[in-house]
Every structure is written in structure tokens, then in C-alpha cells.
Design a protein that fits this description.
By secondary structure, the protein is mainly β. The protein is built from no helices and ten strands. The protein has a single domain, classed as Immunoglobulin-like, CATH 2.60.40.1220.
Length: 102
């Protein structure tokens, strides 16, 4: 787990692959990203609805998250295939220290 300072803006990347096809990159029908702050506030973004998410390649998406308070942040990428089945690309805990970024 990486530790960041308050005020850092981090880039969080999610990569989706097809385990039935040698883990080839694949674009889900829908792509979502959620972030939960140390206070427990959850914000969810959807690719093509929210401009915060950027697609950089087939199956690869990223978003920048500003860390505004100390504590543990949780981020999660997930997608839905054409049948509505969910797939998780990434789920990570991030620690933010009380030091201010310069």
C-alpha cells in the first residue's frame, strides 16, 4: 500500500482483461470507478457519463483523485459485460498521511 500526503492528486488506473482469452484487454459494456473517503463518503463515476474517467487504450481507464484528508481511501474499478455480469478490474486501499504536499 502506498502512502501519499494530503493535497496529492493521484492517478488511479484500472485494466480490464478477459481471463477466458489469455487475459487479452477488453472493454466492458459499462465501466465504473468508486472512491470512498476516510469519512465513508462514496462517489461513483461512470465512463462516458462523467468526464473524469479517461480511456487510454483497450480495457485501460484512469482517473485523477485529489486526496483531501488523512486516513484510508478505497478505490475500485468495475465493469459490466453485455449480459450485466460484473467484473472487477482493481480494488485498492490508499493511505493518506496528515502531512501537506508541497
Amino acid at each position: 500500500m502506498a502512502t501519499y500526503d494530503i493535497g496529492n492528486k493521484i492517478r488511479v488506473t484500472g485494466a480490464f482483461t478477459d481471463p477466458l482469452d489469455n487475459d487479452e484487454p477488453v472493454d466492458p459494456s459499462s465501466v465504473y470507478f468508486s472512491v470512498r473517503t476516510p469519512e465513508g463518503v462514496v462517489t461513483t463515476f461512470e465512463y462516458s457519463v462523467d468526464s473524469d474517467i479517461t480511456k487510454s487504450d483497450t480495457g485501460v481507464y484512469y482517473i485523477h483523485v485529489p486526496l483531501s484528508m488523512a486516513g484510508y481511501w478505497y478505490v475500485r474499478w468495475w465493469g459490466l459485460d453485455s449480459n450485466g455480469k460484473a467484473t472487477v478490474a482493481e480494488e485498492v486501499q490508499i493511505q493518506c498521511s496528515p502531512h501537506q504536499a508541497v
